[in-house]
Amino acid sequence: MSIDQTAIRPLTGRQQQAAVWVFIKRDLSLLTRFKVSYLTSLMGTVQQLVIYAMIARFGLSLSVAHGLTGGYVDFVLTGLALNTLLTAALTGPYLGLIESFWSNRIEILLASPLRLPGFVIGLSVGKLVDAVIQVAVILLGGWLFFDFVWPDGGNALVFLAVLIPALAAVIGLGLAAAGMVYLLDARGGQDPVQFAVQTISSLVAGVYFPIQVLPAAVQWLCYLVPQTYAIDGMRRALFGAHALAPPPLISHLPGSPLLIDVLVLLAYAAAALPLGWLVFRNGMERARADGRLSRWL
Amino acid sequence: MNVVETENLTKIYRGNQPDDGRSWGDALVDLAKRAWRRPEEKAVVDGVSVDVRAGELFGIVGSNGAGKTTFLKLLSCLVYPDHGQAVVNGYDLVRQRSAVRRSVVIAKAGGWMSCLWQLSGRENLLFRARMCGLSGKEAARRADYVLERLELEHQAGGHSWSWSAGELQRFSLGLCFIARTPLVMLDEPTSHLDPHVARLIREFIREDLSREGGQTVMMSTHYLEEADQLCDRVAIFFKGRVLACDSPSVLRARYAADSIPELWVSGYRASLGEQIRKSLGLAEWIEHFEDVASGRARLRPKWGGHPEPDRLRSALEAQCVTVLEVRDVEPTLDDVYFRLCREKVT
Questions:
Q1: What is the pLDDT of residue A75?
Q2: Residues of chain A found within 8 Å of residue B14, distances taken between Cβ atoms
Q3: Per-residue pLDDT tens for B72-104?
Q4: Quick check: B70 and A12 CB within 8 A?
Q5: Buried b (16+ CB within 10 A) or exposed e, A153-173
Q6: Res. A62: pLDDT tops 60
Q7: Of A3, A128, B20, B341, whose CB has the highest number of CB atoms within 10 Å?
Q8: Whole-structure pTM value
Q9: How many pairs of residues across A and B have Cβ atoms under 8 Å apart?
Q10: pLDDT of residue A6
Q11: What is the pLDDT, as a whole number, of residue A148?
């Protein structure tokens, strides 16, 4: 065997995809290798499912108050499922980077022909795959045991039209959060971007309760995060026009709330993705310049 | 043709190690101070200019903290230089970083940091191969070759947490071999290994990577004897600087005495060593005990400015150590290293 000239050429798109795929296989191998741990972590998802389904049974009459086609079960389980997916997109780049840093493998992963986008996608996609499994557990569990009604008037294409820009927008924020690992030395397990977005979205994005039940003074916060538009838009795509009342500001705007959601998400994605990428790349470049990529300084 | 050319390459690390014992108050005060005070600076690689020729096995020797690892990281773009320039495989280290990264591979010290703990041994090799753009078939072929050549077939399905230090190091080398890049950088490839595994690895480096594969190999090591036997040329690092760079034979001829006295003694104890060395003004000597109970040992001063054998004999005899024989032996790279470092310090 002699020197492989193909190793010096840039990777083609297909080779990059193959490289990302081995990252996914690496992450999935954890699920199958440590079965007890993974099943236990899924029990956490089941626990959430049971808590909110029980709250629904306890007698919340949100469906009456807000015109939901299903009950609160449909509302909260779709909220939980969509939030799980969006949270994985938000936290994936940060968690992947932190895991590589603390397991001291980051240099070895970066010392390869794989370019930085391939590297960060590889680190994050496994988390999304895991989130999809959790979503399946929530929805199937809800359907089997808690009267969750599968939406029959849903439109898959419209759902995707909301989901794709939503994921792009949230991934942009996730990249910015990962950039903070080195820019703000946020190597301790939490960073300000992720914390702010997660806190706002879990409180006011309409995951667990409609935004209208919040005090008017804090309702404006919901407009800051893409999760609000994403969850509203996806519920609307699943449950049709009578899903629920749109967020207050959107209801005052002319045009379909769904279209407004999609447009806002597209604008958010167009801004957050390149900005997040810049922050992330800047953080990685700064780490290499400072020599902190794997050093504890 | 040179594979690596560096000119005045410098890396400065800034900032202190965090002090975990600090109170919250002190930590906040420190944070505030840092806003206007420049952090401490330390040049870990300081104006290094070396050339590495194609196909060469180039050794980097030096003590802990001499800058060996950082120098290798600079050449693989894991760390960016503060000053100076370099060309690696024909690519500019600063302006063509992606191309530099594609053309080099690095194995980190200890081996365990090269392997992904989630994957088995064979999966690790395949992972690296796919990251380098190899097809699935070619990746499998190279992985099988590495497993067989490095005697790792029994660990193909095992995981890094269950491997011995030698197995980790061999997998780490195997990962370098898989990529088949023109330049391979090995950071202390034989540290903490038993003689058999160390020899297997040296053979692999010399035969498979260097001779057969035609790859240029840069390896850092603490073992000067290993560098002496294995490397075509050696750079001696000291506090981030290169003190000397040439073939081991030229370095010995240039910096070491023609011969060095070696004393065979009895009644020697390790505890006497420091006292005797101090009385002679010697930094260190090499002690080889043949029989600890009777204190039978071979002693050899490490540094080039050797005292007369008669002075050595009298200093030892003053401590009731019997000198059985004095022989003149060939100097080694150890002697060169200690002389250069000693001169630098004094």
A1: 85
A2: 290, 297
A3: 999 999 999 999 999 999 999 999 999 999 899
A4: no
A5: ebeeebbebbbebbbbbbbbb
A6: no
A7: B341
A8: 0.84
A9: 124
A10: 57
A11: 84
Q: Which residue bears the tokens 């919340």?
A: A60
CB-closest option in A30, A104, A294 to B118 = A30
Distance from CA of A290 to the nearest CA of B (A): 7
* Average confidence (pLDDT) over A77-105: 92
Q: Measured between CB atoms, does A291 come within 8 Å of chain B?
A: yes
Which residue does chain B place closest to A15, by CA atoms? B133
Which of B121-124's residues contact partners 24+ apart within 8 Å by CB, and which partners? B121/B147, B121/B152, B121/B155, B121/B156, B121/B157, B121/B158, B121/B159, B121/B160, B121/B163, B121/B171, B122/B147, B122/B156, B122/B157, B123/A25, B123/A26, B123/A29, B124/B160, B124/B171, B124/B175
| Contact flag B130-A19 (C-beta cutoff 8 Å) | yes
ipTM value for the complex: 0.81
- Owner of token pair 């903290």: B65
Backbone angles phi, psi at B325, to 5 degrees: -160, 150
Name the nearest CA neighbour of A275 among A163, A190, A189, A193: A193
CB-CB: which of A4, A10, A12 is closest to B180?
A4
Map out the domains of chain B with their CATH numbers. 2-253 (3.40.50.300), 259-330 (3.30.70)
Which residues in chain B have their CB less than 8 angstroms from residue A113's CB? 101-102, 131-133
Pick A113's closest partner by Cβ from B102, B119, B213.
Answer: B102
B132 CB neighbours in chain A (<8 A) are: 7, 112-113
Report the amino acid identity of residue B66.
A
Which residues are registered as beta bridge partners of B325?
A: B264
d(CA B218, CA B74): 13
CB contact under 8 A, A297 and B15: yes
For A212-262, write each residue's pLDDT tens digit.
888 888 888 888 999 999 998 998 888 875 555 666 677 777 778 889 899
**Is A57's pLDDT higher than 80?**
no
pLDDT at B243: 94
Is the CB of A27 inside 8 Å of chain B's CB atoms?
yes
Among the partner residues A25, A114, A290, nearest to B131 by beta-carbon distance: A114
Q: What is the CA radius of gyration of chain B?
A: 23
* Domain ranges within chain A, ordered by starting residue: 20-290
Distance CA B237, CA B284 (A): 19
Query: Are the C-beta atoms of A261 and A233 separated by less than 8 Å?
Result: yes
Q: Rounded to a whole number, what is the distance in angstroms from the first to the last CA of chain B?
A: 37
pLDDT band at B306; cut points 50, 70, 90: low
Which residue carries 């938000």 as its tokens?
A90
| Chain B residues closer than 8 Å to A288 by CB | 77-80
Would you state the pLDDT for residue B287?
80
Question: pLDDT tens-digit profile of A99-110?
Answer: 999 888 888 888
Contact check, Cβ <8 Å, A3/B15: no
pLDDT confidence of B240, banded at 50, 70, 90? very high
**Amino acid (one-letter) located at A78:** T
Mean pLDDT score, B205-234: 89
Q: How far apart are CA B247 and CA A228, in angstroms?
A: 67
pLDDT at B116 (0 to 100):
85
Which chain A residue has the Cα nearest residue B41?
Answer: A290
Q: Does A107 touch chain B (CB under 8 A)?
A: yes
